[in-house]
Write a structure and sequence with these properties.
InterPro entries: Metallo-depent_PP-like (IPR029052). This is Calcineurin-like phosphoesterase superfamily domain-containing protein. This protein is α/β, with parallel strands linked by helices. The chain has eight helices and ten strands. The chain is globular and about 50 Å long. The relative contact order is 0.19.
Length: 267
């Protein structure tokens, strides 16, 4: 059963963000950006995966909880809750992500330990809310698989099929807000919209160190660039022994795990 929490009607700007990825410097910058925009924590929505590649899993988890914004579980939270051995992304054996995840997931699990239940046991799988007369569902990956990658290069039929599966549990929505894939984008569909808020903990494979978040306003969604202390984040990873390439990705803006991307999104 999908645990769905309804936030009711939200008024004014809503900040959308995902994938803190244990990157404390990025999460600090995001919280500061929300304050700069004058957006309260209750109007910020997190699409999951507070922990992943970075050095400070527990620090990010506790800071997000203290921030108090509505949030859903990503696959990383769910796997840590379940006491699983890996992040649950289903990476092909031997891919860059498969190799790296064996290190960073172990690091995150050691930091979180038995605190996972206190942090996320009450966190819902999905959220719903109404804004500017439109109803939205917030999910992490796909409707039936929390770790499903849905890319901006996918065909419209992929998005419409996912929305139909979402609506089977939520009723009609005008849009779906998702995360997981790490690339911020908007896809306009017949009478629907799919918004991926992107992630703040890793650049979107565009050759720049800055990451992304989104703001939903009465006239639609706009994507914003998040500048943060990426060098400090990379150095923290190195100090923790997390040197599988993601620390380089923070600096270069290029994923070491390009092999998980569809061909259209590779360099």
């Amino acid at each position: 059963m999908t645990n769905i929490r309804d936030l009711g009607t939200l008024h004014g700007d809503v900040l959308l963000f995902g994938g803190a990825y244990s990157n404390a410097q990025a999460l600090d910058a995001l919280i500061a950006a929300a304050d700069d925009h004058g957006i309260a924590p209750s109007q910020c929505i997190f699409t999951g995966d507070v922990v992943a590649y970075g050095a400070d899993a527990l620090g990010c988890a506790t800071q997000l909880a203290a921030f108090g914004c509505p949030a859903i579980r990503g696959n990383c939270e769910q796997q840590l809750l379940d006491g699983a051995d890996d992040c649950g992304c289903g990476f092909g054996e031997g891919t860059a992500c498969d190799v790296a995840s064996k290190t960073w997931y172990t690091h995150a699990a050691a930091q979180i330990g038995p605190q996972a239940a206190a942090l996320w046991a009450e966190t819902p799988d999905w959220l719903t809310f109404t804004h500017a007369g439109k109803r939205y569902a917030v999910i992490h990956g796909g409707a039936d698989a929390v770790a499903k990658f849905i890319w901006p290069s996918d065909d419209d039929t992929v998005f419409m099929a996912e929305i139909e599966r979402v609506e089977a549990r939520t009723g009609k929505v005008d849009g779906v807000i998702a995360g997981h894939s790490g690339i911020a984008f908007e896809r306009a569909l017949p009478a629907r919209v799919w918004i991926n808020a992107g992630v703040i903990g890793m650049p979107p494979h565009d050759g720049r160190s800055a990451t992304r978040y989104a703001i939903l306003s009465d006239d639609g969604v706009r994507f914003h660039t998040l500048h943060y202390a990426y060098e400090a984040a990379a150095q923290a990873m190195e100090a923790a022994g997390l040197t599988q390439g993601y620390e380089v990705g923070l600096r270069t803006g290029i994923w070491p795990s390009e092999d998980v991307l569809p061909a259209q999104l590779r360099r």
